[in-house]
């Protein structure tokens, strides 16, 4: 599952794309607080590029930018909250939320974590590195992920696996710089965001098929919550 968990059965969720658009709209609104022009707002530019790659409707994208930048007269306030704890069978989890009502989100997280264990701040984060994560796919036949990582200034990389997508890891402050450099190295950036990479991930082979399924079900329930933006899991593979 790696650093960022992704549902294995996204095709089963009819509203998966709608949820994705909703999450991206939130990120756009938060980023647009620092300015509505992507050319001078690196964080906004990265999210806008990601939204375009998944075919978010232009009017939805524009509305989110204007709303976040305060150009519509509507008050928008999302709070960034991290919940830490364990999925079933002691698999560490970090859940990143953007919420307009922490008093709603906190009890919902407590309920969702009943099949695992909700921890206090710092109880799990010590076992994760805060990094920039860039998903990219080769745009030419001779593209080499290792060479691209070195030339673009990435700290590390995970070679292309399923679907031919490589992941480049950066220092958080270098996320935009590396994203801009990768196209010249033969890679098309699909997404770029800050995230958490486990230092000591649990080996899936140490869990039975039944236990792995329990972890998957737990993570799917967390991810389905409207306030959840990203789920980072300490499970290798």
TrEMBL record:
Q: Does the keyword section mention Metal-binding?
A: no
Superkingdom of origin organism: Bacteria
One biological process term in Gene Ontology = regulation of DNA-templated transcription
**GO MF terms, alphabetically ordered:** DNA binding
- The record places domain TACO1/YebC-like second and third at 78-232
Stored InterPro entries? Integrase-like_N (IPR017856), TACO1_YebC-like_2nd/3rd_dom (IPR048300), TACO1_YebC_N (IPR049083), Transcrip_reg_TACO1-like (IPR002876), Transcrip_reg_TACO1-like_dom3 (IPR026564), YebC-like (IPR029072)
Q: What is its main location?
A: cytoplasm
User: Which keywords does this Swiss-Prot/TrEMBL entry list?
Assistant: Cytoplasm, DNA-binding, Transcription, Transcription regulation
Question: Is-annotated flag, keyword Transcription?
Answer: yes
Quote the subcellular location field of this record.
Cytoplasm
Q: Which Pfam families match?
A: TACO1_YebC_N (PF20772), Transcrip_reg (PF01709)
Give the UniProt entry's GO cellular component terms. cytoplasm
TACO1/YebC-like N-terminal domain residues: 5-70
Extract the coiled-coil ranges from the record.
Answer: none
Q: Which family does it belong to?
A: Belongs to the TACO1 family.
PANTHER family, sorted:
TRANSLATIONAL ACTIVATOR OF CYTOCHROME C OXIDASE 1
Q: What is this protein called?
A: Probable transcriptional regulatory protein EH244_11155
């Amino acid at each position: 599952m790696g650093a960022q968990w992704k549902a294995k059965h996204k095709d089963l969720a009819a509203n998966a794309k709608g949820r994705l658009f909703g999450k991206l709209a939130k990120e756009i609104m938060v980023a647009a607080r620092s300015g509505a022009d992507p050319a001078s707002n690196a964080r906004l530019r990265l999210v806008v590029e990601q939204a375009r790659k998944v075919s978010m409707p232009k009017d939805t994208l524009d509305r989110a930018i204007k709303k976040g930048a305060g150009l519509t007269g509507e008050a928008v306030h999302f709070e960034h909250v991290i919940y830490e704890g364990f999925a079933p069978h002691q698999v560490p989890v970090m859940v990143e939320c953007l919420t307009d009502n922490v008093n709603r989100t906190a009890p919902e997280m407590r309920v969702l974590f009943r099949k695992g264990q909700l921890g206090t701040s710092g109880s799990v984060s010590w076992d994760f590195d805060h990094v920039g994560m860039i998903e990219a796919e080769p745009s030419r036949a001779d593209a080499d992920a290792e060479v691209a990582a070195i030339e673009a200034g990435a700290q590390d990389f995970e070679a292309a696996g399923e679907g031919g997508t490589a992941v480049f890891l950066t220092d958080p402050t270098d996320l935009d710089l590396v994203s801009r450099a990768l196209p010249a190295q033969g890679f098309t950036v699909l997404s770029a965001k800050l995230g958490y990479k486990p230092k000591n991930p649990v080996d899936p082979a140490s869990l039975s098929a039944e236990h792995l399924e329990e972890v998957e079900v737990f993570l799917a329930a967390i991810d389905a919550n409207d306030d959840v933006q990203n789920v980072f899991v300490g499970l290798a593979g």
